[in-house]
Amino acid sequence: MSTYTLPAAPSRPAAEPNTAYLIASGDLRPAANRAGWPTQERMEAAVAAALAELGWRVRRAHDYDPEAGHGFISSQRMGLEVFKTIPPDAPLIVAEAVWQYSHHVLAGLRTHRGPILTVANFAGDWPGLVGLLGVNAGMAKMGVAYSTLWSVDFTDEWFKSGLRSWVSTGSVPHDASHVRDLPALADGPEVALGRALAGQLLADKAIIGVFDEGCMGMYNAIIDDELLNPIGIYKERLSQSALWAEMRRVPSEEADAAFDWLVERGMTFRFGDDEETSLTREQVRWQLKMYIAALRISDDFGLDAVGIQYQQGLKDVCPASDLAEGLLNNVSRPPVTSRDGSRVLWDGAPLPHFNEADEGVAVDALVTNRIWTAMGLDPATTLHDVRWGEDYDGRFVWVWEISGSVPASHFATGYAEAVGWRQDPVYFPLGGSTIKGICKPGEVVWSRVFVQGGALHADLGRASAVSLPDEESRRRSEATTPAWPIMHAVLHGVGRDQFMARHRANHLNVAYAPDAATADKALLAKAALLSALGVEVHLCGDVNL
């Protein structure tokens, strides 16, 4: 007779009729969870009220924690424990009014058998939309079916109709008529350029350096080597501890010289005296040491692009990485020499940086850099969060926003328009400067590389960055995160809800072109390059090939 100790068979409760279980994935940072909880409570109440009108009730799968001061799932372990209490076949709502760490709940979502609905409030003050897109992208990568909805106040007929569909059928249909697969491309100079650059990448290969993967639980931002290597891209896995060590070796005089370079070109900083709430000169000095250290380590390893996780690891060690990231992505930036002083590193060229170590953006920024450079265009790219938007003067204008990494060439007057604000202490306890400004009007190509069905995909589209009155720009900035740079973007042939339903990431990549015709040519070359690499390319909205 066996004396082995066998575990008890797992048991789960039975699903109740007309009941949707609700979970809320939260931040890993306690301060952020506490600050966002009132907004989350209001959103959940509105969702519950909408379900009640349909004769359904909401059962929250985890309680408010009075000691923590919030009711979010705040770790992967907590997520595993919460899913033990959820009937595996029950309808499940993932409600997000704030930024969330997707890995807190992805394990449970991967094996959940009931219909899943992700919901967010369409608002700018808290990044619930960004969080929703992050968890959606994670499920798309895992191959888990889900439905998704959003609303300003959860009383509009579009939201109610979608909710009605979900409770009756387990799914919510969305209009995807704006998306089409890349057709066969006719021979031409842009197609020839894209294919030639693809051939070069496959033959010579490229290295992306990653200072720790998985920033802020973004499972969707990690692309396996088995998908990257066949397109000629290899990873150099680096440690943020090595970056910190290199930062400590950078003399303050070098960082101060970089600061003087920025000030001479017109950049200003909003300095104060309180380290905990204000931007200080010492914070900026450390950020510029990071900029110099990142370039030198990238030179050591021969990198073609680099990404810094920052959150979580470095947030308790040094100021934010955003200033360094924005500088790296710009052609014109403070010169940094090799350690022996013999060479200026990446002289006259950006070193593509993928913010938050998002490897989908790494692929995107790398190929964009090569195409734009070959075409004689400004190769500066930036990653934006899909943050929020509203109608203005008869059209929907998005607020695309990121935590500070916009290259100065994306502003009308470059560094003269750039202002350094302190990062929010809720997320960035050690502060650090952003590169705040309003992105200049012009024609842009937007794109996203993502994983779905075990393959690499790319969505490509066109947009116009538009100029809004100063008062409206100020209102939109203050309605989101005032310290961060923003772009006012109008998509070409893609509606708000079409874009939200389709987008497979919380980020997108943006690059400028001098006019619409050139932007169309650059997009065509990019589509040809990605297609030649074997990436499944999709065109979104009005795209002229």
Radius of gyration over alpha carbons? 23 Å
Largest sheet, if any? 6 strands, antiparallel, barrel
Query: Mean pLDDT across all residues, rounded?
Result: 97
The spatial strand order of the largest sheet comes to 11-12-16-15-14-17
Rounded to the nearest angstrom, the distance between the terminal CA atoms is 73 Å
| Structural class based on helices, strands and sheet pairing | alpha/beta
Helicity range: 25-40%
Low-confidence stretches: none
Number-wise, the strands total 18
| Mass-distribution shape | globular
% residues in beta strands: 15-25%
How many helices? Answer: 15
Please sum up the structure shown:
The protein is of the alpha/beta class.
Structure explained in plain terms:
With 545 residues, this protein is α/β, with parallel strands linked by helices. Helix content is 34%, strand content 20%. The chain has 15 helices and 18 strands. A six-stranded antiparallel barrel has the order 11-12-16-15-14-17, surrounded by four helices. Helix 6 packs across helix 15 (516-532), helix 8 (240-249) crosses helix 10 (281-301) and helix 10 (281-301) packs across helix 11 (322-328). The mean pLDDT is 97.
